[in-house]
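$ run holo --ligand "nicotinamide-adenine-dinucleotide" --emit C-alpha cells
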Amino acid sequence: MKRYFVTGGAGFIGSAFIESLLSHEPNCSITNFDALTYAGNLENVARFDKSRHSFVHGNIIDKEAVLAHLPQECDAIINFAAESHVDRSIRSAHEFLVTNVIGTQVLLDVARARNVRRVVHISTDEVMGSLPETESSFFTEESELSPNSPYAASKAAAEHLARAAHHTFGLDVVITRCGNNYGPRQFPEKFLPLAITNAIHNESIPVYGDGLNVRDWIYVEDHCRAILAVLENGRSGAVYNIGARNTRRNIEVVESVLNQLQRPKSLIKYVSDRPGHDRRYAIDPSMVENELGWRPLESWESGLTKTINWYKDNPQWVEQVRSGAYRDYYKQQYGTGVEAL
Ligand code: NAD
Ligand code: DAU
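-- output --
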C-alpha cells in the first residue's frame, strides 16, 4: 500500500487532488496536513473515506509536527500548502515568505531525513513573470524565472530550494507549474469564483484595469490528473508546465459567467488596477503532453458549466466562506462591502 503525505489538502486544489488520488489508487493511504488558514476548509475534505484519508491540523513550518505525522516509508510528499493569493501578497508579504519559502524547505529537509521516495512540489506559471501581448509567445520549461508579485517571488524561491535539494542532495523532486485553475471549492477571493458568487447574488463584479489581461485557464481535475502523471512517471529533477491551451481575457471570462447565469453586463464594474499586474500568461504544455501522455479532458465551456453548477448547488458552502473575515477582506481590497461595489 502506498503512503502519501499531502500538504494543503484542505484548500481548493489540494482537496481536489486527494479526491483524484483516492479514486486512482484505491489501496493508498493519505495523510492530509493542513494549517487551516482562512483558505483551508474542513468542509472540503468531509467527503473522503476516513479509513484511507486522515486529516492532521498542522503547519508546514513546524518541523517536529511534520516529522511526527509523516508516515513511515512515505512514498511521496505532494506540497500544495501555500499562501496563494496575489492581492494578499501585495498587502503583506510576510506570511508568503514564511509558508511558501521556509515551509517548503522544512518539507525538503524532512523528506531527505526520512528517505521519502519523491517530493512533488506544486509551483505556478507566475514564477515566469508576464508575457508580451502578442499571441505567439508562450511559457516553456526553459523560460526564465522572472516573478513580479511577492506571491510569485516566494513561489520562485521555493522552486529554487526544491531544485537545490535535488542538485545538492540527490533528493527526488519534481516541480509542476500550472496556470489558473477553476472548479468547485475555490475560495471566492479569486477572480472566477468571485465573479460566479457575485453574479449569483446579483452583485457587481470588480474587473481590474482595462480587463484585457490574459490568463490560461485549466479545470482543476485536469490539473490533478497531470500531477498524478508527474507523481508516477515524471523525471526526477524535472519541471513540467501544465496548461490546457485555453487563454482568455478577463473581460471574456466575466462575460461567459454572466451569459451562463443570464445576468446583465451592467454588473461589470471596472476598478483600479492591481499594482504590477501581469499582462499575459500562456503555457506551452508540450512536454507534459509528449513525455507523460497527459491531455486535458474539459473544454473551457464544459468546465465552466460544472463550476457554475457546483456554486449554485452549494449555497451553504458559499455562505460559510463569504461570512465574517471574508467581508472584512473584501472591504479592505475593494473599499466597499460585497453588496455595494
Ligand atoms: P488555497 O489557498 O485554496 O489552499 C492552500 C491550502 O494550504 C489551504 O488549505 C491552507 O490552509 C493551507 N496552508 C496554508 N499555509 C499553510 C501552512 N503553513 N501549513 C500547512 N498548510 C497551509 O490554494 P490553491 O489554489 O488550492 O493552491 C494550491 C497550490 O497550488 C499552491 O501552492 C499554489 O501556489 C499552487 N497553484 C495554484 C493555482 C491556482 O490557480 N489556484 C495555480 C497554480 C499553482
Ligand atoms: O497563474 C496561476 C496563478 O493563478 C496561481 O499561482 C495563483 O495562486 C492564483 O491565485 C492565480 O493568480 P492570478 O493573480 O492570475 O488569479 P486571480 O484570480 O487573483 O486573478 C485572475 C485575473 O483576474 C488577474 O488578471 C487579476 C484579475 N482580477 C482579479 C480579481 C481578484 C480582477 O480583474 N478582479 C478581481 O477582483
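-- notes --
The first helix runs from residue 12 to 24.
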